[in-house]
Amino acid sequence: MRNHKSPTTKMGVLHKEAKSSPPTVEETTEKYGLEVGLAQSLKEKDGESAKSLLKKYGIAYLATSIPLALVSFTICYFLVDNGVDVAALLSKVGIESSGAADKAGTFAIAYAAHKAASPIRFPPTVILTPVVAKLIGKEPEDEAEL
């Protein structure tokens, strides 16, 4: 009788227990919806970077991130132009901005707020890039090929 554990065999073939990896943000979004995918992307510490998304999806990443950036800047500009204290608004979601905004013009304040809000924009970009890639027929590049 053996004292150590060995892989189980059936008819001379080794059977390994399948190790399942956790689903990706894209898989979670497709299965459970945008809100759950967004929540997962916020939890992941080793999530994708803008550089890795650009390498993997190319034009699909740009077709996702640029419109989101334009919408973000437009919203920030509209808020600043209408007297909303954007610094206070950002501090409510944990993003601090410098006090130098008091002396800058509307465009500069809006741009600073837009840049400060990039942590808010990135998770939707991560989630939507594969969707855009699928819509335009762009297959993601394997990281091993890069």
UniProtKB/TrEMBL annotation:
InterPro entries: FAM210A/B-like, FAM210A/B-like_dom. Keywords: Membrane, Transmembrane, Transmembrane helix. One of its GO terms (cellular component) is mitochondrion. It comes from the Eukaryota. Residues 49-131 form the DUF1279 domain. Pfam families: FAM210A-B_dom. Residues 1-28 are annotated as: Disordered. The chain crosses the membrane at residues 59-80. PANTHER family: DUF1279 DOMAIN-CONTAINING PROTEIN (PTHR21377:SF18), PROTEIN FAM210B, MITOCHONDRIAL (PTHR21377). This is DUF1279 domain-containing protein. It comes from Cylindrotheca closterium.
